[in-house]
Amino acid sequence: xxxxxxxxxxxxxxxxxxxxxxxxxxxxxxxxxxxxxxxxxxxxxxxxxxxxxxxxxxxxxxxxxxxxxxxxxxxxxxxxxxxxxxxxxxxxxxxxxxxxxxxxxxxxxxxxxxxxxxxxxxxxxxxxxxxxxxxxxxxxxxxxxxxxxxxxxxxxxxxxxxxxxxxxxxxxxxxxxxxxxxxxxxxxxxxxxxxxxxxxxxxxxxxxxxxxxxxxxxxxxxxxxxxxxxxxxxxxxxxxxxxxxxxxxxxxxxxxxxxxxxxxxxxxxxxxxxxxxxxxxxxxxxxxxxxxxxxxxxxxxxxxxxxxxxxxxxxxxxxxxxxxxxxxxxxxxxxxxxxxxxxxxxxxxxxxxxxxxxxxxxxxxxxxxxxxxxx
Length: 375
Ligand code: UD1
Ligand code: UDP
What we know:
The protein has helices at 10-25, 45-50, 67-85, 97-108, 128-139, 148-156, 170-183, 187-191, 206-209, 212-222, 235-244, 246-249, 265-273, 283-292, 306-310, 321-337, 351-361, and strands at 2-7, 29-34, 58-59, 89-93, 113-116, 142-145, 164-166, 199-201, 229-232, 257-260, 277-280, 296-298, 314-316. The protein is of the alpha/beta class.
């Protein structure tokens, strides 16, 4: 078969790696289209190198912009690329603007698409990611759900159950397959850190970064940290921090908050593995904290990764200084106890295999997009 994957942002490179490997192993043709949403070396090429993903067949170089501009540019270019390649199936990943554009471009050409990480819902339509997930799931034909809750969400929205598959979490597969390589990273030596002597943090979601008052409240809450926070900072956040002069206003202590460039995947995983606990607003990092058994404080008021909360490893602290401070204390205590948490079904190294098995067996994928002969 000829399968075309649309990727564009950091987490999508992590997700496409095992799919590419499995498709190639079985002799399928796999075309990788990079929309160009992320373009800095640290957010893009570093991942292709470390995860041995082949160079993308296309880079559409859309770059940054408003949601409308970026998604529109992607849709225009993807429409042309997909029309030229005529794949049997388009694969889309996660919940970024590249996901939405990929799903739209495919369905407009009546080419079937499959969503890897279908069915996650935060039920918060102010998040750009929630809009992307809902629209993508509505218009694609195959839904590869990471969890049983995601399956339920899809069924509740009336999605055709013939196209819903509990495949497990693709991000967990990449993590589990790369643990040994990550262990060899020398990132701790480079940063002069001792295992379990620090907290690792990521923070980049629009709702947290783009409102100066909210960003300041977060950093005020973080000031009560029990350990130094190592913060590989996304360029979006870096720009906002300096635009709003947030760190000065929050009287931040550079001994307690160490800001560094975004890390390549294996170094970041090593930093997570050896941390005392994790603070984040990322979707993928919440999942990784569960797999690695690291307590997590999530700087959001909701999460689509509900299993991480149910497992008792993750806690929502929003952007409230008091809640953040209390959650940091609880995470510290949990980390001291080293609690065992329950890993959801199929979060293992067979996720890509389940997905490709389904694609191979689903010979009627294109039926739902066929225009009946009588028309
Ligand atoms: C996007 C996703 C988000 C995901 C994140 C992963 C959407 C709506 N959001 O957010 O769900 O969690 O990727 O990291 O798709 N920038 C650079 N260099 C780059 C890329 C971006 O400097 O290589 C800066 C630009 O100023 C840009 C800003 O970051 O305007 C935001 O980038 P964008 O791709 O729009 O969204 P992310 O915040 O990265
Ligand atoms: N990640 C990384 N380096 C960093 C920060 C994150 O390699 O400096 C990885 C992380 O391990 C996870 C993925 O990026 O696999 C998560 O992506 P991100 O948080 O950007 O997006 P989200 O999951 O929120 O959509």
